[in-house]
Amino acid sequence: MARTRIPTPHGPAFLHLYHNSRDTKEHLALVIDSAQYSEPSETGVSAPPIRSHSLDAIWDEDETDMDRITRGAYVGRLSATTQNVSTPAIAPHPPAPTSDGVPSPLIRIHSECFTGETVGSMRCDCGEQLDEAIRLISQPIPVTSLSTLPGAPSTIPGRGAVIYLRQEGRGIGLLSKIRAYNLQDLGHDTVTANLMLGHGADERGYEIAAAILRDLALDDGVRLLTNNPDKVEALQKEGMTIVERVPMVPRSWQARNPNLQLAGSAATEVWQDKDGVERVAGATLIGGNSVHGADLDKYLRTKVLRMGHMLPLWMESPEQQT
Fold first, then answer.
1. How far apart are CA 229 and CA 7, in angstroms?
2. What's its EC (predicted)?
3. Which of 22, 83, 146, 226 has the most CB atoms at less than 10 Å from its CB?
4. Would you say residue 35 lies in a domain?
């Protein structure tokens, strides 16, 4: 329905808002792609721009250039003096080929979490995960260029997308999620609390995510940032080709155990607040900082032990590692 430029602490991105025929929610895609701004590399090492077919399509035979620009169907940079309308897409476009040595885009399927992202709850690491996903996708990508041209770059700008699904509380909604928190305080874990409320352990679906990825021509060969095997399987059933699963290791666990630290995962932009406390820039209330505490460790342990998430447990000491 619309696309616009969003400056983030990790660099520029393009926010896409989608309507769909499955539910009445407005789902989102945050696309990180500097190719939206630049011309193909003269060295022969480049990646195709990530664009929405439905946005670039012809919506109405009477639509004007300003109609298209207002909804975000433009190319390059948009300014008071630069308005380049995109070419209307007549049919769904196939994934554009990348140059030799360019890795597949990094993708994160992320479910909305008001408590973790907006108010900084430490019952979960959702706010941290959203910021880390944007940051990791924005990292420069090493390339192995087969081009014989001199001066071929060793990296290209990061590229990929966060598909943001409006399915709070693993699909049970904010009301039930708050009630489940009370049951957790009585001693039940997150899975049991959901079941006690008459919900499934995880009621999320990924059909809409797959449809968005197809619209962005990102369905044929992606690296998926997740610890959840069910998410991998669900996307594969929707026809997605996943060439690699990239783990999402909690930042606090990385700090406790350097062996778990991911390449390029250390945040670098540090500032001090008015009280002299160091903060790390980020995209949510948690920002670039880590979430930690007993509630979070219990939550993560449940995801590993009861939901099969592919993550080595790391709690307070090496003796507790599983």
1. 32
2. 3.5.4.25
3. 226
4. yes
Does residue 38 belong to any structural domain of this protein? yes
Q: How many CA atoms lie within 13 A of 225 on its CB side?
A: 26
SS3 159: strand
301 classed as catalytic: no
pTM of the model: 0.84
Domain range for 219 is 2-51+93-167+204-249
Q: Can you name the residues that pair with 142 across neighbouring β-strands?
A: 155
116 belongs to a structural domain:
yes
Q: What is the pLDDT of residues 172-220, one digit of tens each?
A: 999 999 999 999 999 998 899 999 999 988 888 899 999 999 999 998 8
The residue annotated as part of the active site, out of 56, 125, 202, 219, is: 202
The CATH number given to whatever domain includes residue 159 is: 3.40.50.10990
**Is 198 part of a structural domain of the chain?**
no
Number of domains in the chain: 1
* Tally of CB atoms within 10 A around 321: 15
Per the CB < 8 A criterion, the answer to whether 222 and 245 are in contact is no
Q: Which of 64, 91, 66, 74 is CA-nearest to residue 36? A: 74
Q: Which residues contact 207 (CB under 8 A, 6 or more apart)?
A: 22, 238
pLDDT digits (tens, 9 = 90+) for 159-172: 999 999 999 998 89
| Straight-line distance from the first to the last Cα atom of the chain, in angstroms, rounded to the nearest whole number | 46
Task: Dig out the tokens for 145 from the structure.
Answer: 């260029």
Helices then strands, each counted (H, E), the chain: 10, 13
**From the candidates 51, 68, 123, 204, which is the catalytic residue?**
204
CB contact set of 259 (below 8 Å; sequence gap of 6+):
none
